Amino acid sequence: MTSLRQALLDHHLIVLRILGEWYELDLIGQDKEACAAALGEAILAVELREEMVYLQLEESAALRALAAAKGRLPVATFSRQFGEVRQMGPGKLEREEPWLNPVSPAESLWYRGLLFRGFDESDTGLVEYYFIPDELLPKIVAAIPSIEKPVSPAKKVTPLPQNDEQGMADALADVARFIQKTKAKQGGKVAKVQGGVGVERQSGNLSIAPRQQTVSKPISPPLAKPKSVVPVSSTSADRIPASFQPATTLAVDDLTTVLALAQREPLQLPAQTIVAPFLRDPDPDRLTFLIQLALDAGLLRNNAAVLRPTRAAVDWLRESREAQLGLLFTRWQTTGWAALRHIKQLACEGEWQHDPTAVRRVLLQTLPRTTEWNALDALIANIYQNKPDFQRPDGDYSTWYIRDVQTNEFLTGFASWQAVEGRLLEYVLLRPMIWLGLLERSTDEKVKAVRFHARALAFLEKRLLPAKMVEPALVIQPNAVLQIPLAASCYQRFQATRIAEPLPVEGQKPYQLRITPQSLQQAQDQGITPPRVLQFLQQVGGNRPIPISVKRAIERWAEHGTEGRLERATILRVADPLVLETLRNNPKTRDLLGEVLG
Description:
Largest sheet: 4 strands, antiparallel
Strand content: 5-15%
Shape: elongated
Structural class: alpha+beta
Number of strands: 18
Number of domains: 4
């Protein structure tokens, strides 16, 4: 952070002189460094608890906001609540004298030497901040109680010295300053106080001469009354939904399906058309979300837009469901998957970038860590009032090109917060956090609410819920169809997919896979022989006997291979065999022809 001396040196000399008036210095020299040094000493020496008494409510609130933010806030963020500081050169400063009629609490603090402006690096680049210098911040923090409980400045009366010209002059100057500050506190405008007497001394090129004028402080224009904070949590009967969607572990099931299909044959991106029939939830956004988490976790590898499972995927499949979700939760916190670009009502245009992890951080930091229901609008309102700039830390709401799909208008300025940040928060709450089984949501139309599942609270505490140890066995039917319950081992289903072809899912029915000659051939190509297939079926079936029809079919295939197949085909008939020969020799058509039937 910039030091007080350096912050003062960034001011024009005329501003230093004006600040000097406030701190009872007449800085009439031309040596800017000497002026800044003397003024810095005076600011640090003043009793801020007494000075704070004269602040307006908005000015006090501005200092509290800066103190709460560890001494600095982005200019755009601070200005939105406490107004601007007009930027002027020396000539305009002399003509307009803005310290006599500041337009905002920020400008009022600026001309008291309590607020400064500078640049610093952030995660999003160079950001302009209002700040309190390091040396001054502890004094302001310590003085904040006096802001809230001011002490009357007139509680002490100093007797006027007799026959003491210097004492008389000092007393008159004190009276003038008291009247000036009291009028400022009460809203009166004091232009200048003439005839004040100061102390004259020389310090290098710095002259501290008899006081000519003292600058007053007018009242700042009032800000709009802040909205009251909406209660985030409520336990009243009318806030508890009559029905809700429980948290699930379906993310694990569908990611297992993706891994299994990618194991059977390389999965080409985008995989929606191939994978969707086999998913419990075929939402395209959810699929891209799960694939990205799998890539981030090292469960999948992407080679030229082709997905294949890794060795780490096999280890993940052997874990308990809570551990599997725990890994996905960890990767979700850091993944580059940008929820903002998946909101249907918004069209993000241009090459601008943002931090997609910011919305997750603010939600995990602000959501009440309880399993009680929370109104969705209250959660969003809480962030709006306390951390509105979570996604744009520089407070600049003009650099993103986001268009409202319905109105076709671009959403710029802080007035669009609800349309952008509000929608983003709602999207993450009702989609990714639901997908990962972290939240339960109300299905009651009268109550739009969510609550943490115990699983999420465990993850946040770096632990897992107890795992269910009993896993149901697979059911092998006489028609060579394997039925796999939803609660079955993910690893066993992954392995079963290596020897059987998955069938499209049907509602909440168990997964189904069919053993076919083609699936047996594919298994053998991977080194899985028919005896090993039978051994696997015996094991996953709970050691129940394998249906005799299935066992004989596998043994017969092992002996004779594929003896026949039924398939759909398009047949090309030609009158002359030479035409067929010509087509088979043509590079453009030969790959389109299959086997010759006769």
